[in-house]
């Protein structure tokens, strides 16, 4: 078995989205290198991409069982758990990733998103504030912080964040609608309607 050639072939299939074929090759590679955590993690990523989230978690757990000090695997597992709405479990994984790599900003942001889903808005803001110190113009995090602030009743401050995002992308349906809710909370009904109309001009959305 030419391990190098097969690995390159698997990586190639993974990059171009031929996940089933890549998975089959990784299975073959694992026959000779069953403890290769990169192979295990990549299988998990591909099952995630195929929408098979529970299967993805199984493979991340296989990698973690071999080596618990893999921040990327903890993050991928947490991200998958977040996508299937297991927010508390996701946060535990993001915390593990951050314990291993305190600068893992994607783990920090996703921890904040999960906290928002649980209604823990003040804790979420702490995550977003830390993130924004190094990436002050990240639109997704700015939007998420705006949502947190609005849910805490800080509508004026929330609106400022939504306005910053809209300045970059006026046709972001998701943000325009959150902005409209915030404007209505402030009694600015005409502006709220205008925000909705502006957002409806696009078919896509920027949901977090």
CATH fold annotation of the domain at 1-67: Serine Threonine Protein Phosphatase 5, Tetratricopeptide repeat
Number of strands: 0
Spell out the helices and strands N to C: HHHHHHHHHHHH
Please give the count of helices. 12
Radius of gyration: 20 Å
> Superfamily at the CATH H level of the domain at 1-67?
Tetratricopeptide repeat domain
Structural class: mainly alpha
Q: What is the averaged pLDDT score? A: 95
**Uncertain regions: pLDDT < 50 for 5+ in a row?**
203-207
Shape: elongated
Give an account of the 3D structure.
Among the domains are: 1-67, Serine Threonine Protein Phosphatase 5, Tetratricopeptide repeat (Alpha Horseshoe); 153-208, Serine Threonine Protein Phosphatase 5, Tetratricopeptide repeat (Alpha Horseshoe), CATH 1.25.40. It has 208 residues and is an all-alpha fold. The protein has helices at residues 3-15, 19-30, 37-49, 53-66, 71-83, 87-100, 105-117, 121-134, 139-151, 155-168, 173-185, 189-199. Helix content is 75%, strand content 0%. It contains 12 helices and no strands.
Topology diagram in text:
Layout: H1 3-15, H2 19-30, H3 37-49, H4 53-66, H5 71-83, H6 87-100, H7 105-117, H8 121-134, H9 139-151, H10 155-168, H11 173-185, H12 189-199
């Amino acid at each position: 078995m030419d391990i190098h050639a097969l690995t390159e072939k698997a990586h190639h299939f993974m990059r171009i989205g031929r996940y089933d074929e890549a998975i089959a090759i990784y299975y073959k590679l694992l026959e000779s290198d069953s403890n290769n955590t990169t192979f295990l993690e990549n299988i998990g990523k591909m099952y995630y991409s195929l929408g098979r989230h529970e299967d993805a978690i199984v493979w991340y757990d296989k990698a973690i069982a071999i080596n618990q000090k893999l921040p990327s695997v903890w993050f991928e597992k947490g991200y998958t758990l977040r996508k299937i709405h297991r927010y508390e479990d996701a946060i535990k994984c993001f915390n593990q990733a951050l314990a291993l790599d305190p600068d893992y900003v994607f783990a920090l942001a996703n921890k904040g998103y999960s906290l928002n889903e649980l209604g823990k808005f003040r804790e979420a803001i702490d995550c977003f504030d830390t993130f924004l110190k190094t990436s002050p113009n990240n639109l997704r995090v700015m939007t998420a912080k705006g949502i947190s602030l609005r849910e805490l009743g800080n509508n004026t401050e929330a609106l400022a964040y939504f306005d910053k995002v809209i300045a970059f992308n006026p046709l972001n349906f998701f943000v325009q609608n959150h902005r409209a809710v915030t404007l209505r909370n402030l009694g600015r009904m005409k502006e709220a309607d205008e925000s909705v109309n502006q957002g409806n001009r696009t078919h896509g959305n920027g949901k977090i």
